[in-house]
Specification:
Number of strands: 8
Shape: globular
Helix content: 40-55%
């Protein structure tokens, strides 16, 4: 079974959106089919548009509705608000300004597994496009601590960004029975496998949940585990990796429209190269 795995990364997800835009042109415009997609954070948002049959919607969202201070603003933090306005993304953009075809996403023959992190346990839960509330799932998977100072309530549990507990969900894909994995990365997971201490002065900005603090502290270990699976997958599993072929000019909170467009175009070009290399472009 072929499974597509998409990591998050905030605004770096623009690269993933470019890759999926190229995938949407495969098979004479019918799109490259995956029985299962496993994703979190920005990767889940990119996948949602792709599986809804709107691969170019992501380009419009990033360039017209997420640039400048529309989504990311550190000034809001000073006023006690959120650096990333996830509710603007989930409600205004998704439902009104650039509507996501939720009915098509629910009806997709592809199972989309959206990773979220349980606030109280730090464990990963996967929500489905076929069974769960999609807007809530997308809000939760993007609610990265510090950038979004809160959690999302769903079915009497509280959740934050799935990338906190499972930033590169390749192990989940293997657990689901994947024999062929296409993994889209936005930066080097090897580099992110190194522990980085939190800045004590900013400790008060992070959530009071001990489980989430622990998951954030140990996040580099999850990257390390993912890197090992990429390098040495289990017998019978092949992993193809798509990653920026040159430095991605977009960081987690980049909002410059020109840089975002460069990120999209780079992802698109790398996606086309993957299709050509694997013979899936026709």
């Amino acid at each position: 079974m072929r499974v597509l795995v998409l990591e998050g990364g905030g605004m770096r997800g623009v690269y993933t959106s470019g890759v999926l835009e190229a995938f949407g042109e495969a098979r004479d415009g019918q799109g490259l089919f995956f029985p299962v997609v496993v994703a979190c954070s920005a990767g889940a948002c990119a996948a949602a548009s792709y599986l809804a049959g709107q691969p170019r919607r992501n380009r419009t969202v990033y360039l017209d509705f997420l640039d400048a201070t529309k989504l990311v603003s550190y000034r809001r933090l000073l006023a006690g608000g959120n650096v990333m306005d996830i509710d603007y993304l989930a409600y205004d953009v998704t439902l009104r300004l650039c509507p996501l075809d939720l009915d098509a996403l629910r009806a997709s023959r592809t199972l989309l597994q959206i990773g979220v992190t349980d606030w109280e346990t730090g464990a990963t839960r996967y929500l489905s496009n076929h069974q769960d509330d999609l807007v809530t799932a997308l809000r939760a998977t993007c609610a990265l601590p510090f950038f979004y100072r809160g959690e999302i309530l769903y079915q009497n549990r509280r959740y934050v960004d799935g990338g906190v507990s499972d930033p590169v969900p390749i192990a989940k894909a293997i657990d689901l029975g994947a024999t062929e994995i296409v993994l889209v990365l936005t930066s080097s997971i090897e580099r992110r496998g190194t522990k980085r201490p939190l800045v004590p002065l900013l400790d008060w900005l992070f959530p009071p949940s001990l489980a989430i603090r622990t998951a954030l502290r140990d996040r580099h270990l999850r990257y390390r585990d993912a890197a090992r699976l990429v390098d040495s997958p289990p017998s019978g599993v092949r992993v193809d990796v798509i990653r920026p072929s040159r430095p991605l000019p977009v960081k987690r909170t980049t909002t410059d429209r020109g840089l975002l467009e460069q990120g999209l175009d780079l992802g698109y070009a790398d996606g086309l190269r993957f299709l050509e290399r694997t013979g899936k472009i026709g």
